[in-house]
Amino acid sequence: MRELARARWPEAGDGDVPTVPGFVHSVFAPVVVAVAERCLRRRYGTGLVPAGTRTAFVLVSASGDRASAVHVRATVEAGGRVGPLFFYQSVPNSVAGHVAARWGLRGPVVCLSPTGDPYADGAAEAALLCDDGDADEVLLVLIEQAPDTSTEAVAVLLGGGARP
């Protein structure tokens, strides 16, 4: 497989993470959306992925949406009520599905918690999806939230050729 497009969050000139309707409190989902859309725009411009292309989405994160998990834990411990959007956004597939619907992706959605190198684990899953005939290309997004730094992510569109 070869790299068809790549993007990062943040890149030079980026300000605040754009908000995404339906996702609250945390920047995890908005960063996934921002970096995924930036990568897809670099390959396809502002339109949808072409109808004949099956694009899978592989989201790789060891910690998932850490900020939401901390908020929910603190709310429950304090005897508070957890808002319904947290149940929706607590599953990483929800943001992957959001991107897939907005861009017309027609391949599988897979979320991984890496056991080794995150890129290698994600690229191996991407190769498997293509080798099995489930996808022609794969949007691979790697994201982590650390408690004391800003959220960063990388998106790579892989496809067409030998494995990375």
Automatic annotation (TrEMBL):
Source organism per UniProt: Micromonospora lupini str. Lupac 08
Lineage, uppermost ranks: Bacteria, Bacillati, Actinomycetota, Actinomycetes, Micromonosporales
Molecular function GO terms recorded: acyltransferase activity
Family matches, as InterPro entries: Ketoacyl_synth_N, Thiolase-like
Name of protein: Beta-ketoacyl synthase-like N-terminal domain-containing protein
Residue ranges crossing the lipid bilayer per the database entry: none
Domain Beta-ketoacyl synthase-like N-terminal: 52-148
